[in-house]
Amino acid sequence: MTLKKPHLTMKKILKHTCLFVILGLLFTVNSNAQSGKKALDIKAIKAMEGCFNVEFKYTETFSPEIDYEKAYDYTSAAFEWAEIIEETEDKIVLQHLLIINDSTIIKHWRQDWIYEAQRSFSYVKDNTWQFEKKNYKDVEGKWTQYVYQVDDSPRYSGTATWTHVDGVSSWRNKADSPLPRREYSKRNDKIIREEPNTDQLLVQEKGYNTYEKRATEDCKSAQEWWKNNQEKWATVRDVWQDVLASHITLHLEDKVDGKKLYEHLFYGQGYEDKAAIEVLIDSYVTKHN
Amino acid sequence: MIKLLLSLGLLCILTWPPKLEKKIHKVVEDSYKVDNYNLNPISVDKKDCDACKVEINDHLFSVTNEEGQQGYIYVGIANSMKNTFDYVIAFDKEFKIINTKILIYREQHGRQIGSKRWLSQFFDKTPSSRVQLGENIDGISGATISATNMTDAVNDVLITLDHLKTKDAKF
Fold it and tell me: Is residue B117 part of a domain?
C-alpha cells in the first residue's frame, strides 16, 4: 500500500511549560534595622531596583518522547534598569527597561507586588488568561507577584511567602506562562501536538537568570528615558487596569493590522492620549464569561 | 536470482499505531527532505531469506517521490531491559545508513539510547559493515542492555541486507 504523509496539526503554542519562578536574591538582610516580617519582605522586593547586568541561560532538560531532539542551549545577556515606579503600604511596582548599546532603551517587563492580594490571574493557553479570587486565609502574610509583558498586558501571577533565612531572602512560585518572545523569534518547533482534547508536553526547560548589580549612574540613559515616557505608560497601565478589573476570562489577539500590540505602542503614532490607547487595546481584547 | 515480490502498494496493509506512524513519517521527512512521498513495502520470499537475521516483510520500505527512489527505511522492534522499543533505520539508495532513531521507548531505564550523539555512530555503515558494542560502537553507562540490543538489531539488519545483496536481490 502507499502511505501518505499524515495530516499534522502542530501549530499550537506550548503552554504547559511550567515556568519555575525562583527569585533568590542574594543580598544581606540586616534584620536589626528592620521591624517585622513585612518590612523584610518589602526590603527584599525593593532590592530588585537598580542597574544590573543580566544573564539568561536556558536549557531543555527532559522530554517524554525519546525521539525529541533538544534545541541548543539559549544564552543571552542584557543591561537593565529596574525602577520602582509606584509604592504604597501594600504595593510595589517595578518597571524593567533594557539598555542596548548604552543609549537605546526598550521598555521591558513589569512586576507588581501586592500584599495579601486576593485577586490573581493565570495563563490558560492560546493567549487566554483567567481570573481567580482566593480566600483571605490563603493569602494572609503572602505577596502576589503579577508579571506583565512589554505592552503591559498580563503574563502570569503567583502568590507565595517571602522567606528570610541565613541572610538570603527568597520567594518561590510556579506558574504557567506563554512562550517567551525568544521562543517565537528563535524557535518554531517548540510546540505541542494536538491530540483529541489533550495537549502533549514536548520538553521541559530550565532557566537560570542572574542579576549582577552595577553602578546606578551606568543606567542614566534609562532613567532619563523613563522620565520622558512614564506619562504615556501610566496611561497604558490605567487602560489595562480597567480591562482587567472585570475579572472576566480574557483572550488577546496576537496581531491586529498585522502588528503585535507592543509594536503599535512602541513605534505607532497617535497613542499619546487615553482614548486612543483604549481603542487600540480594546481591538486586541476579547472577554468570555 | 531470487524472486522478490515488490509490492505495488496494493497487497499489503500496514497497521502501525498512529503515534508510531507519525514518528516514522517525521524521520522520513527529516532524512530525505521530502514532503510528499510514498512508502512501498518490500517483500521477500521466505525461502530466499534463509539466512536473514531479521524479518524483511512489513519492515523494509522503499521511499519514493516524484523524483524517483530516495532510499529505504527499516522499522523494527528490539528489547530493552523489561520491555520493547521501536526503532527506524534510514538508508540512502545504496543502503548506506543516513539516520537512526529510537521511536517509542516503553520504560524509564536506558532511555539514553535515544541520544542523537550515540545513534550517529551507526551513520555511514553499509551492508558489508559490522557493528558491535564496545568495539566500533561506544557503550552507554546505565543503558547497557538497550544499547547492546540496538547495536545487535542494526547489525542484524546489515547482515540481512548483505545476505540479500549476495543473492543479487533487486529492490
Answer: yes
Tally the domains of chain B.
1
Q: Model's pTM, two decimal places?
A: 0.69
pLDDT tens digits for A38-61? 999 999 999 999 999 999 899 999
Read off the C-alpha cell for A203: 520538553
Q: Which of B23, B36, B111 is opposite residue A5, by nearest beta carbon?
A: B36
- Flag whether B171 is in a domain: no
Which candidate in B15, B20, B26, B113 is best for mutational testing of the A interface (most A CBs within 10 A)? Answer: B26
Contacts of B22 in chain A (CB under 8 A): 6, 8, 193
> What residues in B contact A9, CB-CB < 8 Å?
none
pLDDT tens digits, A168-206? 999 999 898 887 665 444 443 444 333 344 567 888 888
